[in-house]
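Repro:
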Amino acid sequence: MKKIVSFFLLTFFSLNSFSQQNQLWRGFFSYTAIKDLSQNSDKVYAASENAVFSKNTITNELQTVNSVNDFKADIISSFHYSPTYKKILVGNQNGLLLVVNETDGAVLNVIDILNKATIPPNRKKINHIYEYQGKAYLSCDFGICVFDLATSQFGDTYFIGPAGEELKVFQTTVFNGFIYAVTELNGIRRADYTSPNLVDFSQWSTFDAGYWSGIVTFQNQLIASLTNNKVYKYAGGSFQEIANVGQPIVDLREFENRLVFTSANHVYVYDAQLLPLVHITQIPDVASTFTCATVIGDKIFVGTADKGMYQTTLANSVAFEDITPDGPVRNKLFRIKKADNFLWAAYGGYTKQYNPYEYCCGTTSQYEISKFSDQNGWNTIPFSDLLGARAISDIAINPSNSNQVYFTSFFSGLLKVEGNNNQITLYNQSNTGPNGLESLVLSPPNPSYIDVRINGPAFDKNGNLWMTNSLVENAIKVLKRDGSWQSYTLNNITMNPDNDDYAGIKIDKNGTKWIASYRNGVIGFNENYGNKFLLIKTGTGSGNLPDNDVRSIAVDHRNQLWIGTFAGLRILSSVDRFLTDTALETNSVIILDDNLAQELFYQQSIMDIEVDGANNKWVSVEGAGAFLVSSNGQQTLYHFTKENSPLPSNNILDIEIDGSTGEVFFATDRGLVSFQGVSTKPQDDLNNVFVYPNPVRPEYNGTVKISGLIDKANVKITDIEGNLVYETTSEGGTIEWDTRAFGKHKVASGVYMIFIAAQDGAETKVKKVMIIR
């Protein structure tokens, strides 16, 4: 396979419809980080990081729009709803403009600013969108762009600096025949709105040289916010103070007869006479800052930085209702783990260099953990309940007790969450004994500094929980089923074990632990064979890895070991070789690409490998989305990217498969989505064979799935007269039929018989499916 670099045709727009969304995908997005609001007379619209939602103030109907609806935002920075044209305009930090037609659900991706080569990439942010007389004026980091709402096309771009240079524009408005623009360093600039040549910078002049942050036209008055934390009105040739907020004003807007301005801890609502109606300083039991607010009738809507949107009223502004759509608390999920009825999520984490301090926030993350079920939605255990466990990096569910879940912390140890009441225990260097968890040792030593970096938890068949302990010699730890701890040293096994980090552990059928390391390749270990260790590293005779930085490991159904490194893929032909050999050599996968022999995933950074029920491999490649390759890697069955699928990002941090249903979950740095795959685990018998959809109606364009199969089952499909139309052998628990007779023409309407038999003929099952053309 050629090195994966995605190139796409540059067009000025692309049109997609999310009214016919792909039923094979589900989106699980966070709506907590409110970037901007907009409104009409009966509906409030909110934009989070990369998704949009709305609430009807009369019916209370809540609707969401995200990547599953073909809404492919980058990072949203501005937002506007046009009631006249029934269009939602969404500005992004990278200059992308998304236009959603509310009538038919079409999404227009306008990439003029995004592709403008003369503007540096870091100066394309769209800060504000203002509508006036059929035009949308986009305030950008370089100037003003005009967008025609009727034709959905860009018009002129205004560079309004004193010498025609780029200026960062925060907000615009039209007042008394002039268009006003608040700039970062050149005060308020204005020009005659009726001038036919506003692209000429000489048409623009300085109205006020102060450092302003926002401007609106309200009740035939010019209202502006200054960086001195005050709001002013322009009257009698000068600005007069209206209010002193005491904090920088982050949002200034008007709607109907209300003026609203917001700071981190204040929301003010003023009436048409510029008299204060409401002053909100906090939302009870919500620790967050405000980002924006608006008013519709007697209802006030407040957006927060990380807790979603809340609704209150002018009459009772101390009682709030959370109207945020259900979802995870963050879009960047570091690890996910699927149990039968639940999906657990952890938010981070560490960098590619295994540094927990630089993953976020300037320090180790203090994030919550979340649990999702189809019945109850998302529930979160806040950080305050996690006994101080930071930088949570991985998850293991006890296979004999799904209510016992372990979370590794890459700073604080091992966290156990147990029972329906989430009883929490934290294991660290202080309560696991001399053979337990260890804190790294600084040079020079500092006994008061505690940093216990645990990762890669995995249960063996005896119920023991194995894990790694980074930056210490005794790097392999096990919490035994009886509650005792045991350590195994890597001293004299690997190079400088006290300076190494580790990703995941996979345990094979022989009990061998395969450990992905940062600097020492793959470490194979089995305590049942005299504490035997074998290393798989770079170099001929040493393992043939393309890189010693191993990020992912998978043991497939044929007992092959798939190894994903930072620079390519390798396969160990059989894990059984560990038991007999003294050295292990891996091989690359060679495929034909354009009739040339190529190495599969050559020099690509493999972030995750997961094996589905049919022994196919889901592979996450950094910056290139997700691949599904056949069991031997010779065929690419799917390649999902942000551009051709609902993936919100091409950076997939984790993949998880529900073995019972075949659903594949993709945790990205911009949100969580799932794809309904068809490869499920094989069953022990044929008692639960299920055919869907049934009947197959004329409007359905997908395949018929037959699930609940045993492995290697023979499946024959005939018409009602006994004529064979399809035959296959199952790999895993599900097969698909495209309703064609041996891949040729579509079969006619009628009832079709499905005959299923075990490989030895000892077990059979008969099902029917009706097809309506």
